Amino acid sequence: MSDILYLECPCSSFPRSFARDYKETYLYPPPSTIYGFLLSLVGEEDLTAHLGVKLAIGIVGIPSISRILRKQRHHKFSKTHMGTYPPSQFSKPNFQELLTDIKVVIKIDSTQESATVKLDERVAIALATPEQITRFGGLSLGESWALINGIRNYRPEDGEIQWLVKDNRGLIGLPVWIDRQTTQGTFQRYSLIINQFDENCWTEIQAPIKTKATKSRS
Question: pTM of the full predicted structure?
């Protein structure tokens, strides 16, 4: 079990991709979120540095959902405002779902990576000798305010693991990669199985191939 990472996060939110005014949350941390979390852990700012890595994600227990009312910013980039959006004009109260008592396990397979130093090696270095890592900010899962309690190796006494397993007919749809400029991305459907790890638990992190838009004939 030493190759399984375990982390606890007291409170976070993984907003659904289609959520608008009412910020619904995924019940499980998406692969895109876990990949970003691991990059933050090792101090990597280049999102493409470890493409090809495979991640397996599981949860211990089921996090509770609560709903809060918070002020949120709403705007789209426009040439008129040029990045200046005063809160008095572009903020309004909205409901948001939060998850509490989140317990996540992660396995990393870096055999298909092309990076010189693989992500699993960098994570091992970060946990064993954190003084060698250059990073900034608190380590969070999801939004920046959602700081984690800590990360360590999984122990059997932590509880049964429910693994996310790729299943094209599964009811759990999660983003694997999101393009922050277009908000489009790739998604995968999953099911949950208890304490049964197999090859379908692996999700490979790959950026989608961009295709040129073709002009339609009038």
Answer: 0.87
